[in-house]
Amino acid sequence: MWKLPARLSFAMYLIHLPIIMVANGSWTHTYYFRSNEVFYRFLSDLMLTFIAAFILCILIDAPFSTLQKLLMGAGKKKPQTGVKTESRDAYEEKTQL
């Protein structure tokens, strides 16, 4: 249930600082504080971070988690232990006696 939000939030954590640095480094004029502009920049940084994190999860995290499951053998189902099953022949022999 929480696997996808956890992966997205971690990817957003990893990618948000480079996005902010690139966005701030690309300014071509002097920046003066205005509340509406700060809100606009916050929303644009948030959306860019979310989109980049989603792409990061799709292209890197998902294939490597699948590969890890295959290599570690987590995809195989283990047989149940402690549960005894009778074969059909043994059952028929008991019922005939």
What's the arrangement of secondary structure elements?
Blueprint: H1 3-25, H2 35-72, H3 88-96
Helix pairs in contact: 1-2
Describe this structure in words.
With 97 residues, the chain is an all-alpha fold. It has one domain. It is built from three helices and no strands.
Strand content: under 5%
Q: Please count the helical segments.
A: 3
What's the structural domain tally? 1
Question: Structural class of the helices, strands and pairings?
Answer: mainly alpha
Q: Are there runs of 5+ residues with pLDDT below 50, and where? A: none
Average pLDDT, all residues: 85
Helix content: over 70%
* Major sheet: none
Radius of gyration: 27 Å
The number of E-state strands comes to 0
State the distance separating the first and last CA atoms.
53 Å
Order of H and E elements: HHH
Shape: rod-shaped
List descriptors.
97 residues; mainly alpha; 3 helices
Task: Briefly characterize the structure.
The protein has 97 residues and is mainly alpha-helical. It has helices spanning 3-25, 35-72, 88-96. The protein has one domain.
